Amino acid sequence: MTLLDDLAWRGLLYDQTPDLADHLAGGVRTAYCGFDPTADSLHVGHLLPALGLARLQRAGHRPVALVGGGTGLIGDPSGKRAERTLQTRDDVEANAAGIRGQLERFLDFDGPNAARMANNLDWLGGAGLLDFLRDVGKHFTVNAMTAKESVRSRLESEQGLSFTEFSYQLLQAYDFLVQYQRDGVTVQIGGSDQWGNITAGADLIRRAAGGQGHGLVMPLVTNAAGTKFGKTEGGAVWLDPERTSPYQFYQFWLNTDDRDAVGYLKAFTWLGPDEVEALAAEAEAAPRARPAQRALAREVTTMVHGAEAAEAAERAGRVLFGDGDITSLDAKTLGEVFEEAPSVALPAARFEGDGVPVVDLFVEAGLAASKGEAKRLARGGGLRVNDEPVEAAAAVTASDAVGGAVVVLRKGKKSYALVRLER
């Protein structure tokens, strides 16, 4: 398949400018995608454009990841109901630095079609207002600018649209022109909400430089429930492991709705038609085993955090269902695995020496109503510490705590509690 055929099969070809297919088939092209530095980390909503650049590169083209260090000071109104809070220059520069490191996971920066990073602050930071209005603004009519969906929807809202955000499409169009003139960039990709900005850039290249720019946009992803992809009750799902741990990241994909799983396999992984079709058939035959979700979680977590982190996340998930070694996990991951389990904090000093009697610990953790009940449960094999059965006369010491910080108690098959050792 050609690149566009592959994108179409994956459900990622929302719209394109005329003659894009012929342009891509005519030789090695340089394409860019912009990333808005509103935070110091990308989130899963950025995966499609990042993978879009990676797919272009694998098809033999040169990708440019443009960090909007300059436009980030303004804010893109596309898809926004209200104006963004303006950031300081220091904030934008710090965020741009964080994003650069994450994009390097997806793109190859070596070889004949090596990827390149760019920052539009390099040319926007020194642009004079009068020169910009004369050289760029004269090529745009207010009629055309207000006809863009991203602008029109805001003009019709109660919030309205400031001139600052109204000017954003001129800045993004200028980005395309500058890169076309400096580095031969002829293609811009993005989400479907960027179509107006991308076509504005192609128009500017034609009017100001007599050249031809091309655009390709991918659909904005929603889930089967119709809500925006990538949002959870806890907020955004980040690519930074300090914001969203590999275990939490893995669980996000594992919990994908059955109706979305096959589509997400196409959009967010490198798996081809044969592999996806096989997983789809397996999912239809044994839906409770969730083979599509497991493959999705494994593939995306490996891509973002590495194979070792993906394996650890899988192992942690098995622990939740009693099919793994609890002591193989660190205390932080244990806390995430049993996030919804009740927990109790006890002084670490109590676990020194002979430790805390098991029956006392289960009562204090709320898993047994009395010591008598705890003893009866232990005699029947119903009490476990770190998933190992314990006797009623046993005690828990500091050496039993995972990482010296956490002990996992279990009553029966599904009742858990965490004991955290406070120091």
TrEMBL record:
It is an enzyme of class 6 (ligase). A motif ('KMSKS' region) lies at residues 228-232. Its main location: cytoplasm. Its EC number is 6.1.1.1. ATP binds at residue 231. A motif ('HIGH' region) lies at residues 37-46. GO terms for molecular function: tyrosine-tRNA ligase activity. It catalyses: tRNA(Tyr) + L-tyrosine + ATP = L-tyrosyl-tRNA(Tyr) + AMP + diphosphate + H(+). L-tyrosine binds at residues 32, 168, 172. Pfam families: SYY_C-terminal, tRNA-synt_1b. Residues 346-419 form the Tyrosine--tRNA ligase SYY-like C-terminal domain. Keywords: Aminoacyl-tRNA synthetase, ATP-binding, Cytoplasm, Ligase, Nucleotide-binding, Protein biosynthesis, RNA-binding. It comes from the Bacteria. Homodimer. Belongs to the class-I aminoacyl-tRNA synthetase family. TyrS type 1 subfamily. HAMAP family: Tyr_tRNA_synth_type1. This is Tyrosine--tRNA ligase. It comes from Rubrivirga litoralis.
